[in-house]
């Protein structure tokens, strides 16, 4: 066993030494070559030639005179256009103003005159006419009956009796325009004495007094339990006398 190891060490030691020596010499050569190339010895100095140069500034050449610039051409100014004078305006024609009409001074509104109801006329009793007495020379037939004369019936007012009839107010528009009018209306009276179904038969002028008349007739009252139909009344409007009924 010790002999075997000895021979192995002798076998591998020489080549290793040769290899180490070769590589060491190679590395030393490379280091020497690199040092020789990088470091150079200075060469012998050469003489320096010196030349004297005059540094005085030379006189500058005079600059060439600038060429005169041409004067700009004068552009002729355009002549102003002469505008034609506008034609003279026509003189305004004076319009004649209408002469103001003298307005009549409004007369004071007259106080409404209360209508005095006339007392109801009582029918007069008619005296019976005396019968003619037959004469002695005339013979009266036994079969002839005595002739009796019928009594004369007294004229009585038909329809319900009015209890209160307020006069319609004069319309402000009609009073301002000094307009008078006449309206004829027809109406009915129900069981409670109220006015119903008012119809305007005629109106002069139209659409002036009808509204105020209908408003006033709603307040009229008649006797109860005495209905009436197709009653007619005419109402007259006058500036001086107000409203009156016919």
Automatic annotation (TrEMBL):
<keyword id="KW-0813">Transport</keyword>
<feature type="compositionally biased region" description="Pro residues">
    <location>
        <begin position="81"/>
        <end position="103"/>
    </location>
</feature>
<feature type="compositionally biased region" description="Basic and acidic residues">
    <location>
        <begin position="114"/>
        <end position="124"/>
    </location>
</feature>
<dbReference type="GO" id="GO:0015031">
    <property type="term" value="P:protein transport"/>
</dbReference>
<dbReference type="InterPro" id="IPR049924">
    <property type="entry name" value="TonB_pro-rich"/>
</dbReference>
<keyword id="KW-0812">Transmembrane</keyword>
<comment type="function">
    <text>Interacts with outer membrane receptor proteins that carry out high-affinity binding and energy dependent uptake into the periplasmic space of specific substrates. It could act to transduce energy from the cytoplasmic membrane to specific energy-requiring processes in the outer membrane, resulting in the release into the periplasm of ligands bound by these outer membrane proteins.</text>
</comment>
<dbReference type="GO" id="GO:0030288">
    <property type="term" value="C:outer membrane-bounded periplasmic space"/>
</dbReference>
<dbReference type="GO" id="GO:0031992">
    <property type="term" value="F:energy transducer activity"/>
</dbReference>
<feature type="compositionally biased region" description="Basic residues">
    <location>
        <begin position="104"/>
        <end position="113"/>
    </location>
</feature>
<dbReference type="Pfam" id="PF16031">
    <property type="entry name" value="TonB_N"/>
</dbReference>
<keyword id="KW-0472">Membrane</keyword>
<comment type="similarity">
    <text>Belongs to the TonB family.</text>
</comment>
<dbReference type="InterPro" id="IPR037682">
    <property type="entry name" value="TonB_C"/>
</dbReference>
<dbReference type="GO" id="GO:0098797">
    <property type="term" value="C:plasma membrane protein complex"/>
</dbReference>
<dbReference type="GO" id="GO:0015891">
    <property type="term" value="P:siderophore transport"/>
</dbReference>
<feature type="region of interest" description="Disordered">
    <location>
        <begin position="59"/>
        <end position="169"/>
    </location>
</feature>
<feature type="transmembrane region" description="Helical">
    <location>
        <begin position="12"/>
        <end position="35"/>
    </location>
</feature>
<keyword id="KW-0735">Signal-anchor</keyword>
<feature type="domain" description="TonB C-terminal">
    <location>
        <begin position="155"/>
        <end position="246"/>
    </location>
</feature>
<keyword id="KW-0997">Cell inner membrane</keyword>
<keyword id="KW-1133">Transmembrane helix</keyword>
<protein>
    <recommendedName>
        <fullName>Protein TonB</fullName>
    </recommendedName>
</protein>
<dbReference type="InterPro" id="IPR006260">
    <property type="entry name" value="TonB/TolA_C"/>
</dbReference>
<dbReference type="InterPro" id="IPR003538">
    <property type="entry name" value="TonB"/>
</dbReference>
<dbReference type="Pfam" id="PF03544">
    <property type="entry name" value="TonB_C"/>
</dbReference>
<dbReference type="InterPro" id="IPR051045">
    <property type="entry name" value="TonB-dependent_transducer"/>
</dbReference>
<keyword id="KW-0653">Protein transport</keyword>
<keyword id="KW-1003">Cell membrane</keyword>
<keyword id="KW-0677">Repeat</keyword>
<dbReference type="GO" id="GO:0055085">
    <property type="term" value="P:transmembrane transport"/>
</dbReference>
<feature type="compositionally biased region" description="Low complexity">
    <location>
        <begin position="126"/>
        <end position="158"/>
    </location>
</feature>
<comment type="subunit">
    <text>Homodimer. Forms a complex with the accessory proteins ExbB and ExbD.</text>
</comment>
């Amino acid at each position: 066993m010790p002999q075997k190891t000895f021979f192995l060490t002798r076998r591998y030691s020489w080549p290793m030494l040769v290899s180490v020596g070769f590589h060491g010499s190679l590395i030393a050569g490379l280091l020497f070559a690199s040092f020789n190339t990088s470091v150079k010895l200075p060469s012998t100095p050469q003489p320096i030639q010196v030349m004297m140069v005059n540094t005085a500034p030379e006189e500058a050449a005079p600059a060439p005179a600038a060429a005169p610039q041409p004067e700009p051409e004068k552009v002729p100014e355009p002549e102003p256009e002469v505008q034609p004078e506008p034609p003279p305006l026509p003189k305004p024609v004076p319009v004649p103003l209408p002469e103001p009409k003298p307005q009549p001074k409004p007369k004071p509104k007259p106080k409404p005159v209360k209508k005095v109801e006339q007392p109801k006329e009582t029918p007069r009793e008619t005296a019976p006419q005396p019968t003619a007495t037959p004469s002695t020379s005339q013979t009266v037939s036994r079969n002839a009956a005595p002739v009796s004369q019928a009594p004369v019936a007294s004229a009585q007012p038909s329809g319900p009796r009015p209890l209160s009839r307020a006069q319609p107010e004069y319309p402000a528009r009609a009073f301002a325009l000094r307009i008078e009018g006449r309206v004829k209306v027809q109406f009915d009276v129900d069981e409670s004495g109220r006015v119903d179904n008012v119809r305007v038969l005629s109106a002069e002028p139209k659409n002036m007094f009808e509204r105020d008349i209908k408003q006033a007739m709603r307040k009229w009252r008649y006797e109860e339990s005495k209905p009436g139909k197709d009653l007619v009344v005419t109402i007259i409007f006058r500036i001086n006398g107000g409203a009156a009924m016919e």
